[in-house]
Automatic annotation (TrEMBL):
Gene3D superfamilies: q2cbj1_9rhob like domain. Coiled coil: none annotated. This is Phytanoyl-CoA dioxygenase family protein. It comes from Actinospica durhamensis. One of its GO terms (molecular function) is 2-oxoglutarate-dependent dioxygenase activity. It comes from the Bacteria. Keywords: Dioxygenase, Oxidoreductase. InterPro entries: Phytyl_CoA_dOase-like. The keyword Oxidoreductase applies. The keyword Kinase does not apply.
């Protein structure tokens, strides 16, 4: 990456709502990250739907398969190093105009045949931070070549100026696709090691992985902030939210009650 590259990329980020950084990680580093994602996918208990780290998507046969580890950095020094890589943090500081802190980070591995994500803006989930949307972004660290066919993420170019309301029956929900122009969506083709950075308000979605390789990305999000404990604050709140809203303690009790 040269300073000239970053000038262009900074302009593209603010104009289109995303940009691509190349050369942040070398081949050996990408190989290490791939091996690490393989190791993590073999851990016991990932297919337990009471595991607070995992989330599920519909797989090829219509049943649910886990596709995401979130949080993941506390169990992976290699991924922690990638999310805090000095070259990435320096590039983000240039693009965002200030030093940022890690907010959250997840690993998503979409196996062949596994479905994608409906259109949304990340900022909707971060309003509680009471931070300007311009301070927040996500990096997509790409571990295999990917494009639209392999379930890569598509971004609505230039649609990052405001939070878009949800559909009439759920105005507080994810943005109404009817308010977006489908001709604006771009699915950047990425090489292994490429890092796509997108603004917290950029609407994005992804489809099924119709390729033969797992579409695997590490997705750290960042915020321009002085708060050294931002990551810890995020997950303290998130774990409580999942217990209350997604899982419900009563399911743990049901399991305990069934023990003889
Ligand atoms: O991994 C994908 O296909 C999409 C993920 C995404 O949009 C998100 O986590 O916000």
């Amino acid at each position: 990456m040269t300073a000239t590259d970053l000038t262009e990329q900074t302009e593209q980020y603010w104009k289109d709502g995303y940009t691509v950084l190349r050369g942040v990680y070398d081949e050996a580093q990408v190989e290490t990250l791939r091996a690490e994602s393989e190791r993590l996918w073999e851990l016991e208990g990932l297919d337990d739907d009471l595991n607070l780290r995992t989330e599920f998507r519909r797989g090829p046969d219509g049943t649910h398969v886990f596709d995401r580890l979130d949080p993941v950095l506390d169990i992976s020094p290699a991924l922690n190093g990638a999310a805090r890589h000095p070259r990435l943090l320096a590039a983000l500081a240039t693009i965002l105009g200030g030093d940022s802190k890690l907010l959250k980070c997840k690993l998503i591995r979409k196996e062949p045949g596994v479905n994608g994500y409906a259109v949304h803006q990340d900022f909707l989930y971060w309003t509680w931070l009471e931070t300007e949307p311009d301070a927040l972004c996500t990096a997509v660290i790409n571990l295999y070549p990917c494009d639209e066919r392999s379930g890569g993420i598509g971004f609505y170019r230039g649609a990052h100026r405001q939070l878009i309301p949800g559909p009439p029956d759920n105005p507080e929900g994810d943005c109404d696709p009817a308010r977006l122009d489908e001709s604006d969506i771009v699915f950047p083709a990425l090489e292994a090691g490429d890092v796509l950075v997108f603004h917290a308000l950029t609407p994005h979605r992804s489809g099924r992985n119709d390729s033969e390789l797992p579409r695997t990305v590490l997705l750290p999000s960042y915020c321009v902030s002085d708060d050294d404990a931002l990551y810890q604050r995020y997950y303290k709140r998130e774990v409580v939210r999942r217990c209350q809203e997604l899982v419900g303690f009563e399911r743990y009790f049901e399991r305990n009650d069934a023990l003889v």
